[in-house]
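Input.
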Amino acid sequence: MSVDASVERRTEPENRNGDGNGVVAPSSTHRLRLNPNTNHEPDNYEDLQLEFSPLLFSSLEQYLPPFMLNARRDVKVQYMRDILLRYSNEAERNRVQKQREYRQKIMSRYQPLHRELYAMNAEKFFVPSFLEAIKNNTEEGFRSIISESSPGVYTFEMLQPCFCEMLMSEVENFEKWVYDTKFRIMRPNTMNKYGVVLDDFGLETMLDKLMDSFIRPLSRVFFPDFGGSTLDSHHGFVVEYGMDRDLDLGFHVDDSEVSLNVCLGQQFSGGELFFRGIRCDKHVNTEARAEEILDYYHVPGHAVLHCGRHRHGARATTSGHRMNLLLWCRSAVFRELKKYQKDFSSWCAVCQHEKKERQRVAVATTKLELLKRDGNPAP
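Output.
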């Protein structure tokens, strides 16, 4: 596969510090461990009014130093909050505050069409096979409903038709409200000119539940190298493709650790996803190997789950109208710890090849030196 253009990714600058010696330290007194306390059960922070996501606090808690694990919840909150405030610069905090005010303005004016969408109703939203696998919460159960179409690309039936229809009509209702009121909305990302951000008009809490209770269990199993067990925030949106909408989507990687992509439906042809392998930043524009090449044809209600670093795009929708639900799941812990890593051979195919080549050369060099020392001629 020849990459015709650089892979695109929407990124946000961050200002963070670390000492690189086993701890991430914004100050001399507030530290996080690089390795989580996996046996520790974190507190729930959803009942508190905090400037950061409650899920973020729960994820960070497992990285607290041992002396903090059994502290009172309010003490842990203050400790983690001090760390987060140092990680998040003033410009970023101002951006988040403006986003919160923007969403509150929309929700104070927009009247939902289907209020049942705004609270998680698993029995009505998901197909029975998916619900049963989540309930059992075992790798065997997950693999029984999931197909690995290509290394790192997992597909499965997920959403009931009634949910897909409700969500599409809710999006259409919101778009009509935007048109009628001439309200200026933000599009999902820098690459899509059509579509809406679901979090902006009230679906944030429902999507948080979707990520935390339904996607994170899968990610723990299938994406452990990408922060799959520490997902703590999301960006949820719908994209629309058709002759009068976005036509296709260029070759790119997502601003996520784990991405969920579900076709909601309508009548369409074309628009298949194409995947070309997982790469680190250094190797993002390298060639794909034969086993990494996959074209996936959308089926309404069926989901595709992949890591954000998996290079992909969407071919042109040649007729009709296609609408997809996207959930970009993120992990602040993974993003922080990744800054101190230099070896990505556990998931980047090129890094893995380079590591094996270094090992091969090292073995050959050692063998040659041993032969010379013993007085034997080199082969």
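Residues 349-373 form the longest helix (25 residues).
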